[in-house]
Amino acid sequence: MPRPPRSLAFRLVRALLAGIAICYLLLTGAIWYAQTRILFHPNSLVDATPADSGVKFTEVMLPFKGDKLSGWWVPSEEAGARTLLYLHGNAGNVAVNVDQVLRLRSTGLNVFIIDYRGYGHSSGGPPRAKLVCEDGERAWNYLVAERNIPPAHIAIYGHSMGGAVAIDLASKHPDAGALITEGTLTSIIDRAHGTWAAYLPLRLIITERFDSLSKIGSIRLPKLILQGDSDTMVPPVMARRLYDAAPEPKQIALIPGGGHENSAVVNPTVYFATLNAFLSQYGLKPRDGTAK
Q1: Neighbouring C-beta atoms of residue 63, cutoff 10 Å
Q2: 100-146 per-position pLDDT tens digit
Q3: What is the C-alpha separation between 21 and 13, in angstroms, rounded?
Q4: Which of 105, 94, 99, 102 has its CA nearest to residue 71?
Q5: Residue 189: left if φ>0, alpha if ψ -120 to 50, beta else—which one?
Q6: What percent of the chain clears pLDDT 90, i.e. is strictly above it?
Q7: pLDDT digit string, tens, across residues 280-289
Q8: Which of 83, 93, 119, 204 suits 45 as a labelling partner, its CA being 20 to 30 A distant?
C-alpha cells in the first residue's frame, strides 16, 4: 500500500529542523575557520614609543625562523636592576602598551617587550597560539643568551592573552625568577562557555586554546596573579581558578575597581603595593626602586 501523504505540519517541522541543522553546521564551520581572526587583532602602526616620554630605549630586531621579532629594551636607571619580560595581549602592538611599560619600569626594573609575529614591526604572521608562544621563547632566549641575564633575575609578566604566553613560557623555565599574570583566561574554551558559543562543539573546533589552567599546576616558581575585580572581559573567577590550580609559592590580588586593562591606573596604590612587595620578597627589586 502506498504511504499516506505527510501532513503539512510534519513537512514544515522537518524543514525547520533541517534548516536549524544546516545553520548549526555552517556556524560551527565559520567559527572554526575564523577563530584566529576572532582572537588575534594585530596592528602594524607603531605610533608611540618610550621616547615620547623622554625615556631612552633601544629597538631590538630578533631574527627568528626567517622572520624578525621587534622589541623594546627599556633599561632602568636603578643600579643592579632586575629584568621584566612583558608579554602583551591580543590586540594592537607595543605602542598600545607603552604607558604600562613605563609604569613597570618605574618599579626599578629593566623592561623588555616584544611584538609577536604579525604585530607592529615584527614580520611574519598571521599569529597563532603556537607561534606566539614560540615568540615568547625567542624573547626569553634573547635575554638569557644574548644579554647574559641570569634566569633568576627575570620576571615573566603577561597581560590577558600574554598571560597565557607567560604561563607557557614559565612552565618551560623553572629557573626564572617569577611569573606574574594580569587579567588572564583559564582557557579560550572556558571563556566561551559563558556565551552562546557554549552550544557549539567547542572542543572539536577550537584549536587556539591557550589552556593555562592545565599548565599552571606544573609551575613551582613564585607566582603573582593580578586581576581587576571589575574586569568584564576576563571574569575574576578565572583568576581564582588559576590560583587554586597553582602550587605554592603563589599570591593573588584582586584590584578594587580595576578593569581588564586599567588596574594600575584606577587603583595604583593597591596595584603597586602588591607588585612591589612581591618583587621585593623574591629579590627582584632594588632596595631604592619606587613605583610612580
Answers
A1: 10
A2: 999 999 999 999 999 999 999 999 989 999 999 999 999 999 999 99
A3: 12
A4: 94
A5: alpha
A6: 75
A7: 999 998 654 4
A8: 83
Fold of 40-281: Rossmann fold (3.40.50)
Q: What whole-number distance in Å separates Cα of residue 96 and Cα of residue 78?
A: 25
Q: How many residues does the chain have?
A: 292
Rounded to 5 degrees, φ, ψ at 252 are: -135, 145
CB 205 within 8 A of CB 232: no
**For residues 217 and 246, is the Cβ–Cβ distance under 8 A?**
yes
Q: What is the pLDDT of residue 36?
A: 77
C-alpha cell at 229: 575585580
C-alpha cell at 267: 587603583
In the three-class reduction of DSSP (H, G, I as helix; E, B as strand; rest coil), residue 160 is classed as: coil
Low-confidence ranges of the chain (pLDDT < 70): 1-6, 24, 26-28, 30-34, 194, 196-202, 205, 286-292
User: 211: which 3 cell numbers?
Assistant: 589552556
Written as nine digits, the cell of 99 is 604607558
Domain range summary for the chain, segments of one domain joined by +: 40-281
DSSP state of 7: P
Q: What is the three-class DSSP state of 82? A: coil
Measure Cα distances from 290 to 42, 87, 150 in Å: 33, 22, 23
Are 251 and 223 contacting, i.e. CB atoms less than 8 angstroms apart?
yes
Q: What pLDDT, on a 0 to 100 scale, did the predictor assign at position 209? A: 81
User: In this predicted structure, what is the pLDDT of residue 208?
Assistant: 82
Across the chain, mean pLDDT equals 90
Sign of the C-alpha dihedral computed for residues 92, 94, 95 and 96 taken in this order = positive
